[in-house]
Every structure is written in structure tokens, then in C-alpha cells.
Amino acid sequence: MDTKARLSNDEFLLKVGELFTKQQESGTVFLQQKRLTEFDPVEKEHNPSPGNFADISAQGKKYPLLFRASNGASDKSKKIKYTTVVESDKLEAFWNKYADVVKGGVAGLKKKDKKKTKGKKKKAPAKGVSK
């Protein structure tokens, strides 16, 4: 799949559900969410002073969110990666659907079998050591 192509929100949810189904027996699903910002070049000769910082909360700008899902395969030919962008006004509806898909995928997981360890044995003093 072309990793640069972004899916629609509904198509992304379907693909994530399928990814969880494929990876249920053996495999990993990586989920990422982050704020999507436009490219903002940094000025090289900028000396910030304490009075120059703008109040970020006062800006009121809304940013879209980027959601990614991947199977985490290191081999590029086997790697599956899906991406979508959710606008901030549609986030609540998308998040509810996304949470349902993730909960459904996680329900199939089982705990790792941990070996029960017996109490630690005390080390015996080293033999042949004398002063």
C-alpha cells in the first residue's frame, strides 16, 4: 500500500479492524495519534527572550489530528500502514468509533504466561577466600 495515501475516516476504521483481526494470533499493532501541523520553518537568527513568547492557549487555532495504524513489520514488503486525518470538529464522533474498534481488537488479546519464580536462593559464601 502507498504509505503517502490517506484514507477516509470510515475506511481507516475498517482497515484498523481488519489489521487487528490479522494480527490476533501472532503479531503487533502499533497505533499513533498526533496533532497535524503545517510546516513551520525555524528562523536561524532568532534570540528568544522571556517576553517574546505568545500565549499558546489564547491563539484558539484548531488543528486536525493524524491517526496511524501499522503492523510494525521491519520488512517493507510486509509492512501495512494506514493513515487518516480527522478534523477537530469531527473528532468526538470519530473517537467514539475508534475506541470501539480498538476495544474490539484488544479483547482478543490474552495475557502472557509468566513463569512463577521461586524465592531467591541466598548465595553461598565463596570458598577458598581467606585473609
Automatic annotation (TrEMBL):
Family: Belongs to the SRP14 family.
GO CC annotation terms, alphabetical: signal recognition particle, endoplasmic reticulum targeting
Organism expressing this protein natively: Lipomyces tetrasporus
Known partners and oligomeric status: Component of a fungal signal recognition particle (SRP) complex that consists of a 7SL RNA molecule (scR1) and at least six protein subunits: SRP72, SRP68, SRP54, SEC65, SRP21 and SRP14.
Main location: cytoplasm
One of the GO biological process terms: SRP-dependent cotranslational protein targeting to membrane
Record GO terms (molecular function): 7S RNA binding; endoplasmic reticulum signal peptide binding
Keywords attached to this entry: Cytoplasm, Ribonucleoprotein, RNA-binding, Signal recognition particle
Compositionally biased residues, Basic residues: 109-131
UniProt signal peptide: none
Positions of region (Disordered): 107-131
InterPro entries in the record: Signal_recog_particle_SRP14, Signal_recog_particle_SRP9/14
Function statement: Component of the signal recognition particle (SRP) complex, a ribonucleoprotein complex that mediates the cotranslational targeting of secretory and membrane proteins to the endoplasmic reticulum (ER).
Subcellular location: Cytoplasm
Keyword RNA-binding included in the entry's annotation: yes
Annotated protein name in UniProt: Signal recognition particle subunit SRP14
Pfam family, one: SRP14
Top-rank lineage group of the source organism: Eukaryota
